[in-house]
Amino acid sequence: MVKRFLFTIFFLLQIPFLVLMVAFVPKRRKELIWGPDPIINNKYWSEAMRSVGYSSKTLMSSVYKINKREDFDLYFDDVTPKWIRPLLFRKGMSLFFAFSYMIRNACVVHLPFSGGPFGNTLLWRLEAYLFHCVGIKIIILPYGRDAYCYSQTIDPSFRNALLINYGESARREPQIRRRIEFWTRNADAMLTGFIVDGMGRWDVPVNNMICIDTSLWKSKSVYSSNNGENGNVRVLHTPNHRGAKGTEFLIHAIEKLRAEGLKVELVLLENVPNDKIREMMQEVDILADQFIATAYALSAIEGMVSGLPVMSNLEHEAYTRIFRRYAFLDECQFYPQLPKPLNIICVPS
Q1: Domain ranges within the chain, ordered by starting residue
Q2: How far apart are CA 132 and CA 181, in angstroms?
Q3: CATH-assigned architecture of domain 215-331
Q4: What are the b/e assignments for 176-196, b being 16+ CB within 10 Å?
Q5: CA geometry: angle 28, 32, 33, nearest 5 deg
Q6: Start-to-end C-alpha separation, the chain
Q7: What confidence tens digit (pLDDT) does each residue in 19-70 have?
Q8: Kindly report the CA angle at 209 between 98 and 310, in degrees rounded to 5?
Q9: What pTM was estimated for this model as a whole?
Q10: Architecture of the domain delimited by 28-190
Q11: Burial class (CB in 10 A: 0-12, 13-18, 19+), 109
């Protein structure tokens, strides 16, 4: 309780400095900045924009163990003066310096609904006003946990899958809803992809805006002729959280096929570095992406660029029809022109 009170006073004392900072920001700022959650898509988006001539950087609060520190350009600690100590005080001040870096360098910031450096503090609303005060555009790119209000998910099975791995978000729904409503009013642009549940706004109806660096991936040069009868078929699945991906149903399906006498092997990689997954995609026959949410994820795109057949759930029309009408879902090799996507997914009943 005392610690929380002290942090509240600490952040309130920063408000005058933030306002003063805005008065002295450089007139010309040209960077695209992506962050602060260390989602690997931020890296790929930033690199894609750099490849066509933009000045673009990622600024992250931390790094996940499945990624490498060098995946991102800057961290909050990098833009915080080294003389600031001790660690607890430095952690609080790093939010101020990270926001200062954005204000002084960005022309556009790309954020999730959880906001920027001050997203988890009392100052989270102030970010939007200060960004706009100096002419910085705000683009919201949700990634999942920041955006789902469980009571508003269309598909109850998907809601249950979210609850399996991310049950704490159900208790935070009022907070998540406030963030969504705030940024819906204050963002300059929003792209939500398949995350349409509870969204009152999106500016580009695109089914998926995630991308990868195709130069890091190569298509398989050798394919197996095994069909499960004349030899082993290897199925790769790479969930970070099994419940959300429907892993239990995939395991059950593999076990049933094996019980029927078919030679099928499940290669299950969890919480491993992306480099390892990239190598394994050259050695397997099929990629199993996800089976509860109606969507395809980054793993599916990596599988496609590796030349693998990909299994992913595109069953629920409430999530797919809009993107077949207004976006490019019908052009995606996941979803050929068929009455039902029978050849791409076996969904548990």
Answers
A1: 28-190, 215-331
A2: 17
A3: 3-Layer(aba) Sandwich (3.40)
A4: beebbebbeeebeebbbbbbb
A5: 115
A6: 48
A7: 767 767 777 789 999 999 999 999 999 999 999 999 999 999 999 888 889 9
A8: 125
A9: 0.88
A10: 3-Layer(aba) Sandwich (3.40)
A11: buried
